[in-house]
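pls design
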């Protein structure tokens, strides 16, 4: 009986490479995950770029992000889960970022309604330009 149990308690020979292979992360993405990452990266970049325009593309991206449907292979939920990301975490932070961006734009842009000269000065960046400065050629 003792002879049968002896092999069970013998140490396994393991090379350091084999030991660390278990703990080392595999950073090589499969082609499918590369595609998912590209889709998510492009959607977030377009979301950031079109937030001020609020056009049809922005609305489409917002709908894609907020959609809970996971029937489609490249839905937001499936892309995030395929990459090991939490879709709810991304969703909760995007509206805050969007509101902050829209508020900063509204704060930074002065009221340029009125004369053509005021609009021209705004485009040139001379918000506080006066007639005296314009006459001196500082524009």
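designed seq:
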């Amino acid at each position: 009986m003792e002879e049968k149990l002896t092999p069970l308690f013998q140490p396994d020979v393991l090379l350091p490479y084999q030991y660390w292979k278990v703990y080392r992360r595999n950073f090589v993405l499969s082609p499918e995950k590369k595609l998912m990452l590209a889709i998510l990266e492009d959607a977030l970049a377009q979301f950031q770029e079109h937030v001020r325009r609020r056009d049809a593309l922005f609305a489409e991206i917002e709908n894609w992000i907020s959609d809970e449907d996971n029937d489609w292979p490249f839905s937001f939920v499936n892309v995030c889960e395929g990459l090991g990301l939490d879709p709810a975490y991304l969703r909760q932070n995007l509206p805050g970022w969007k509101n902050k961006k829209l508020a900063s734009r509204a704060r930074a842009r002065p009221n340029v309604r009125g004369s053509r000269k005021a609009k021209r000065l705004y485009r040139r960046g001379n918000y506080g330009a006066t007639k005296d400065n314009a006459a001196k050629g500082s524009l």
